[in-house]
């Protein structure tokens, strides 16, 4: 292929994530996209356990997405690589890892529920990654669906400029299509042999005035945001469709506006315009900034150039009994079947045995170029977050941030003969999911599994049970505590002196320890700051760094119960060296021991993870729910009536008190209550919680 053809190919790629709160319809949207683009020949349903992306047995049984699944399809000359992400908060790290490699996203909203808490969380995640978005307001067929209310909620809570480009035709079960405010044509899905083939037609008479009014509002809003559009608007008092479309593309890519479409994925309505909007407005790999990473000579930038040195990030690893499949995002260069690539982080090389599209049927490829997302076989050791690159041009990209685990369970094989197999299975799980941490409890010798929530661990354990086919016993879930400094000490002296023949060790350090002087409102127990005010070169720079490293070592175990220590500021105020016996090792040891002693002298506070809980229940159950939340040491923030005779209660509750809440709420409300949680940092815990 000529290089211009390759570039045209890259310009036609869209790497996109589907993001939303639990149950908004991400998997159903994905399924309909695969059906419409011809990737699948039957429409799968989440509730029947027949979708492509919810392919793990547990996803099918539970009806929720657990791991992000990448699939690929073609639409109008474009290649769309799409990642269906989970909406449950316990799997938020999956979303984070996906956003790391995506260029754009579709945020799905439930037209009845509007902007739900986890939608807000994933929206902020996407903001942090600078990923442009379009919004799809789904479930317009449901009773109580309201596009305008959802757009208003988006404006209020997520983005100041949501721009609706659709006007629904019909309401609720009578929802049959949309007026496209760009072309001013009606798109309907109420005919054809399936009852849902797309037809284009004139705007229905009854909607003409309203469509005209909305088009004018859209033009005005776009002119207010886009200088070139404004010029045309001032001159002609209107915008042409071409100007409107070009401006919407620019505003989407710059993040200044969010195009809002609507439909009903379940009824197969609104998917074609969604795909058209994805290709028209969301960026290609050529439109996003070059990636930056740590190269041999400092920070390096690599653009989406097929001729450049290969640069790819591993964002998923699937380990099965039959092999290991590694999903890659290629940022630069060309990957060929049989290539040897370098894991620049470890210096290990890997051989690419096969390259496949991330499709249900894994079509094989000979090469893949910058900008694409593919799966490869043959990679043996590279984990999620690893950079694979050309052996002659090492580069390490920043991996996605992994949240610290907050819940822990002890896991044991019922029969001791299975112990070894269990250890292998646990290690394999942690390899796939970096937010799972496996360690051995030094006191009990038990394997301990930590993760992001009760469901996260429950799913992990269930996977092990199934893959091993053996009985596994699981201890009671425990939350991960932390310790922080409430009031500090000044001038703590530690003198580390060892003379045992040969070279001795000498380091003298003086430390101040205090709570961080962070901005007001900073969460308690966050961060660690180290500074030095030593003057006159009394402690050379490299020793200061060693003291800092020693202090970090000391943070692993706090004085209250051996929990990690966070939320403090340590200042090295003075010190002394010995001409012969001082070394980095001596200063590191001194730093560790000094801070360990100093923390014992500080007033320390035990912290526990807390979560913000949003409970939706029938009005008459509110009293009971409030009482129950109070009994769980929850602080109720508010309770407000919502649509359809329900009420929404929000509270901040210690995570430890939320174990089993799903079952408790279900029985209290006879199955009509639902709740979602999201991490809300740490708060002081009752003293009895310390070990
Ligand atoms: N009425 C109606 N139901 C829908 C629509 N889209 C999806 N659903 C249903 O809503 C439920 C949740 O849909 P999913 O596609 O699994 O939602 P999700 O966002 O992938 O959920 P998680 O992956 O668990 O976060 C399923 O029962 C779907 O059949 C729609 O347009 N209308
Ligand atoms: Mg899903």
Task: Explain the overall architecture.
With 691 residues, this protein is α+β, with helices and mostly antiparallel strands. It is 28% helix and 33% strand. The chain is built from 16 helices and 38 strands. Strands 18-17-23-14-15-22-19-20 form an 8-stranded antiparallel sheet. Strands 2-3-1-4-5-11-6 form a 7-stranded mixed sheet, sandwiched between helices. The protein is globular, with a radius of gyration of 28 Å. The chain binds guanosine-5'-triphosphate (GTP) and magnesium ion. Magnesium ion binds next to helix 2.
Which terms summarize this structure?
single chain; 691 residues; alpha+beta; eight-stranded antiparallel beta sheet; seven-stranded mixed beta sheet; 33% strand; binds guanosine-5'-triphosphate; binds magnesium ion
């Amino acid at each position: 292929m000529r290089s211009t053809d390759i570039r045209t190919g890259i310009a036609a790629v869209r790497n996109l994530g589907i993001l939303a709160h639990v149950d908004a319809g991400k998997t159903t949207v994905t399924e309909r996209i695969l059906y419409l683009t011809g990737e699948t020949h039957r429409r799968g349903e989440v509730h029947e356990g027949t979708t492509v992306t919810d392919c793990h047995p547990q996803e099918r049984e539970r009806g929720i997405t657990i791991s992000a699944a990448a699939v690929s399809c073609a639409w109008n000359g474009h290649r769309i690589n799409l990642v269906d992400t989970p909406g449950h908060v316990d799997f938020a790290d999956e979303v984070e890892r996906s956003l790391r490699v995506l260029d754009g996203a579709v945020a799905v909203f439930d037209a009845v529920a509007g902007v739900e808490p986890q939608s807000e969380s994933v929206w902020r995640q996407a903001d942090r990654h600078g990923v442009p978005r379009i919004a799809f307001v789904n479930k317009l067929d449901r009773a109580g669906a309201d596009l305008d209310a959802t757009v208003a909620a988006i404006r209020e809570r997520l983005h100041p400029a949501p721009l609706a480009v659709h006007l629904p035709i019909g309401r609720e079960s009578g929802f049959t299509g949309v007026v496209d405010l760009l072309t001013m044509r009606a798109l309907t899905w109420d005919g054809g042999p399936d009852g849902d083939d797309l037809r284009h037609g004139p705007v229905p008479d009854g909607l003409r005035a309203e469509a005209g009014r909305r088009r004018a509002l859209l033009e005005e809003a776009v002119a207010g945001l886009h200088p070139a559009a404004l010029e045309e608007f001032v001159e002609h008092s209107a915008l042409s469709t071409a100007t409107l479309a070009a401006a919407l593309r620019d505003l989407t890519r710059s993040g200044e506006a969010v195009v809002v479409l609507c439909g009903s994925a379940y009824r197969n309505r609104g998917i074609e315009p969604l795909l058209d909007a994805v290709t028209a407005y969301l960026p290609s790999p050529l439109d996003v900034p070059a990636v930056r990473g740590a190269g041999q000579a400092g920070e390096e930038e690599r653009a989406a150039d097929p001729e450049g040195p290969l640069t790819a990030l591993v964002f998923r690893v699937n380990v099965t009994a039959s092999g290991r499949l590694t999903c890659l995002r290629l940022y630069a260069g060309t990957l060929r079947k049989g290539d040897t690539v370098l894991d620049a982080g470890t210096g290990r090389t890997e051989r690419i045995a096969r390259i496949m599209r991330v499709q249900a049927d894994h079509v094989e490829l000979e090469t893949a170029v910058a900008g694409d997302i593919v799966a490869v076989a043959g990679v043996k050791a590279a984990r999620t977050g690893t950079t694979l690159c050309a052996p002659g041009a090492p580069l390490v990209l920043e991996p996605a941030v992994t949240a610290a685990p907050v819940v822990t369970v002890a896991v044991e094989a019922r029969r001791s003969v299975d112990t070894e197999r269990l250890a292998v299975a646990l290690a394999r799980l942690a390899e796939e999911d970096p937010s799972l941490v496996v360690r051995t409890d030094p006191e009990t010798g038990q394997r301990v599994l930590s993760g992001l929530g009760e469901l996260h661990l429950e799913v992990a354990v269930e996977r092990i049970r199934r893959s091993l086919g053996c009985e596994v016993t699981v201890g009671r879930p425990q939350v991960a505590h932390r310790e922080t400094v409430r009031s500090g000490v000044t001038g703590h002296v530690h003198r580390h002196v060892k003379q045992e023949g040969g070279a001795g060790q000498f380091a003298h350090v003086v430390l101040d320890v205090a709570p961080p002087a962070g901005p007001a409102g900073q969460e308690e127990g966050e961060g660690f700051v180290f500074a030095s005010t030593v003057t006159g070169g009394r402690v050379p720079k490299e020793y200061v760094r060693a003291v800092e490293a020693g202090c970090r070592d000391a943070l692993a175990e706090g004085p209250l119960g051996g929990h990690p220590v966070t939320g403090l500021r340590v200042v090295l105020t003075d010190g002394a060296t010995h001409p012969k016996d001082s070394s980095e090792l001596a200063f590191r040891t001194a730093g560790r021991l000094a801070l360990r002693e100093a923390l014992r002298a500080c007033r320390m506070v035990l912290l526990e993870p807390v979560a913000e809980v949003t409970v939706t229940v029938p009005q008459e159950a509110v009293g009971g729910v409030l009482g129950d939340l109070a009994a769980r040491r929850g602080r109720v923030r508010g309770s407000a009536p919502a649509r359809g005779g329900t009420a929404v209660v929000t509270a901040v509750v210690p995570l430890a008190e939320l174990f089993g809440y799903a079952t408790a709420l279900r029985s209290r409300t006879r199955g009509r209550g639902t709740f979602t949680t999201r991490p809300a940092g740490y708060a002081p815990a009752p003293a009895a919680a310390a070990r």
